[in-house]
Amino acid sequence: MKIMNNGEMNRIQPKASDVPNRNTSANSNKGFDSILQSAVSNIQEIKLSKHAQARMIERNISLTKPQMEKIGDAVNRANSKGIRDSLVLLDKIALIVNVPSRTIVTTVDEKSIKESVFTNIDGAVIL
User: Fold this and answer.
1) In terms of C-beta density within 10 A (0-12 exposed, 13-18 middle, 19 or more buried), how is residue 88 classed?
2) Does the pLDDT value for residue 65 go beyond 50?
3) Which one of 8, 62, 67, 75 has the fewest CB atoms closer than 10 angstroms to its CB?
4) What is the C-alpha to C-alpha distance for residues 38 and 42, in angstroms, rounded to an integer?
5) Which residue pairs from 114-119 have beta carbons closer than 8 angstroms and sit at least 24 positions apart in sequence?
6) What is the mean pLDDT of residues 24-50?
7) Could you give the angle at the alpha carbon of 45 between the alpha carbons of 53 and 105, nearest 5°?
8) Is the pLDDT score of 12 beyond 50?
9) Cβ neighbours of residue 47 under 8 Å, at least 6 residues apart?
10) 13 in helix, strand or coil?
11) What pLDDT digit, counting tens, does each position of 78-93 carry?
12) H-run or E-run covering 25
């Protein structure tokens, strides 16, 4: 790097060797698909609290991979709105999710939803 004095102001002017080449072998070997796959794999997964696991067993609730992906999307949407604790309604199942930790706190099945009062939430996502 070379410092040039131009009157009262000093400017830093990079030499050609200081500027990264966008077509380096590391970048040219990676295609869009591999970069996208790397970014997707860095997305945090949704976790289940022990309480949520117990409720799912008790209420005979199981979640498929596509449903978990939808829940992940709902958590991302809730996070973008600043929601901390969200009610997520998905396929006749209600879930309370702690958004910052990306953890399902509890689950409620279809017949119990009608009787339930959900407290301590600051947002809802309906899928």
Assistant:
1) buried
2) yes
3) 8
4) 6
5) 118/87, 118/94
6) 68
7) 35
8) no
9) 101, 102, 103, 104
10) strand
11) 999 999 999 999 999 9
12) helix 25-29
